[in-house]
Amino acid sequence: MTKSRTALVLSGGGARGAYEAGVVRYLREELPVALGEQPRIDILSGTSIGAVNACFLASTAHVPELQGRMLADVWLSLRIQEVFHWSVLGLAALPLYLWRRIRMLRLRHRLLFAMSPSYRQVRARLEQITAH
């Protein structure tokens, strides 16, 4: 009979990494009290920031009881100035960037519906109704 394995899969999404650090802290600090032992994590996997957190956990696997605190400390030590690099030029370009993104979304939305047969049918029917 094969022994079952436990995997920890961490997702991507920037700030979600901080949330994951809190979950890892629970798994490593509070759950062992309830279980009476450190839970074994055999497989680590992650996407984007989850992969970064998974690599950290793999590199500290020799001290599972400290992993939660260490990962949380890394996240708590981050400062906004280290994450976002703002400049006057960058801030000045922000409205144009947002305008372009909104315009592209609207265009994509229009193209999606303009190509669908049901849209053409609804549009033709509305034109008939408004013409009368």
Whole-Å distance between the termini?
76 Å
Classify the helix fraction into a percent range: 55-70%
Structural class designation:
mainly alpha
Determine the number of helices (DSSP H or I, runs of at least 4 residues).
6
Return the string of H and E elements.
Answer: EHEHHHHH
Tell me the β content: 5-15%
Taking the sheet with the most strands, its summary is: 2 strands, parallel
Task: Count the beta strands.
Answer: 2
The stretches of 5 or more residues where confidence is low (pLDDT under 50) are: none
The mean pLDDT is 85
CA radius of gyration: 25 Å
Q: Largest sheet, order of strands side by side?
A: 1-2
**Dominant shape:** elongated
Task: Write a short abstract of this structure.
The protein has 132 residues and is mainly alpha-helical. 70% of the residues lie in helices and 6% in strands. β1, α1 and β2 form a beta-alpha-beta unit.
Kindly describe this structure.
This protein is mainly α and 132 residues long. Helices cover 70% and strands 6% of the residues. The chain is built from 6 helices and 2 strands; from the N terminus they run βαβααααα. It has helices at residues 16-35, 49-59, 64-77, 80-83, 88-115, 117-131; strands at 7-10, 43-46. Strands 1-2 form a two-stranded parallel ribbon. Strand 1 (7-10), helix 1 (16-35) and strand 2 (43-46) form a beta-alpha-beta unit. It is elongated. The model has no long low-confidence stretch (mean pLDDT 85).
